[in-house]
Amino acid sequence: MHxxxxxxxxxxxxxIIEWIAAIWLIWTYSEVSGDRVWRFLSFAMLxxxxxxxxxxxxxxFDNPESLTWLVTVQAAMTVLGNCTLCAAAWWIWRxxxxxxx
Length: 101
Description:
Elements: H1 6-33, H2 37-44, H3 46-60, H4 69-95
Helix pairs in contact: 1-2, 1-3, 2-4, 3-4
């Protein structure tokens, strides 16, 4: 746990909490607005959350060699998360009514 300074830990943990809050708020918006397309964005955010949790776990245990597989999982979840977030943004964009001017 000594691998990171206290301010860095605060940033890491608060980022995870903020990401969880964002997922919940987007899901709630989907329910309140009745626009179910936003739920896909909530699900699309999960790989990025898993990526962050892998990084924090690895740092918590002082970056041991035995947990280097977490770095690989983090990288894979980052790539997957970027792809799912891109797809969710595209889906939201495509679901909007077009306006002809």
